[in-house]
Amino acid sequence: MKFLKKLSCAAAVALSMAGAAHAEDVLQNWVFNPVGGGYSSGQTIGEYLDVNGNAFIQIANTGNNTFSFQENAVFNIVQADSNGLLFPVTYPGGNITATFAATGSGTFSGAFQFTGGTINIYQDAVANYGSTTGIYGADDGKLIASFDVLVGGGGNVDASGNPISNGQVTVYAKANAGDLASGYFFRENGQDLSSEDILAFAFTNANGVSNITQNLVSEVACQFGGYTGAGCTTGTTYTPTPGQNFFVSNNGQFKLAEVPEPGSLALFGIAMLGAGVAARKRNKKA
After folding, report:
1. Of 193, 188, 152, 153, which Cα lies nearest the Cα of 175?
2. In terms of C-beta distances under 8 Å and separation of at least 24 residues, what long-range contacts does 159-164 make, across chains too?
């Protein structure tokens, strides 16, 4: 018990220190060119790209009040810093979209976290997000960035595994050098980020989808998520099933950040160890 208390304390300190380090390392005033035209004609991004979209989540009960899940989502990215300078208008042909595919695990009426996945960002000359082109029009065009989803992040869920209403969901991801296309992403000083390792942080608010269209079902659930239930064949209608599958609406921010030094990664390791040990102790008592 004494060891657990010490480890939990160390984990709390490590998390607070690591969080402070990441807050300082988020890129400010970086430059994004939605059409890949280079630094000089790009738009300065104070801190974030605005993202909004929908996710289809499939849950599998793994016993002891826990679950695993698969999430497939599509996003539209039309502006930065909520500034109203819409990319397709300010930069004709700069329609930016993204796909998100990830797995994770969690506890009903508790928290969940991601265990891996991929974020792909596309630039499309035609604004056809929401169409049947490709996957909901979200993967149509040129792939300009690919990020690997890191273990962690997540949020809180209710007894059915649904993210709590308007609850924040966090995703951590990393792109290695070469995973960003040249001509799109730049540091404030003009250095092209395509030659660097870079982190990404996505913070979105999750809410239930009030209008689940057939197009959303067939494109995101059936085609992208591999779902084969009602709504995927002619004459059937999709209905969300609590604790099994449902749609979530997301809107939030996508930020870039420096890759932390090895020391910061060590802090995260201590924090995750402490959290894992504490969780195992609680499960054994239950």
Report:
1. 193
2. 159/108, 159/109, 160/108, 160/242, 160/243, 161/57, 161/59, 161/67, 161/69, 161/106, 161/108, 161/112, 161/242, 161/243, 162/208, 162/242, 162/246, 162/248, 163/206, 163/248, 164/206
Per-residue pLDDT of 131-187, as tens digits, reads: 999 999 999 999 999 999 999 999 999 999 999 988 899 999 999 999 999 999 999
Give CA–CA dist 278/112, Å, rounded. Answer: 15
How would you list the strands of the sheet with 43-45, edge to edge?
Answer: 43-45, 30-32, 185-186
Cβ count near 281 (within 10 Å): 13
Query: Considering only CA atoms, which of 243, 152, 139, 242 is closest in space to residue 199?
Result: 152
Report how far residue 232's alpha carbon sits from residue 35's, in angstroms, rounded to the nearest whole number.
Answer: 35
- pLDDT tens for 225-276 read 999 999 999 999 999 998 999 999 999 999 999 998 665 544 544 444 444 4
Tell me 133's DSSP state. Answer: S
Q: Give the separation between CA 128 and CA 121, rounded to whole angstroms.
A: 15
Residue whose token pair is 């609680």: 282
Look-up of token digits 């059937």: 236
pLDDT in tens, 23-77: 448 999 999 999 999 999 999 999 999 999 999 999 999 999 999 999 999 999 9
Q: Where do we find the tokens 């300009």? A: 144
Is residue 153 exposed (0-12), middle (13-18) or buried (19+ Cβ within 10 Å)?
buried
Residues 6+ apart with CB under 8 A from 93: 34, 35, 123, 124, 125
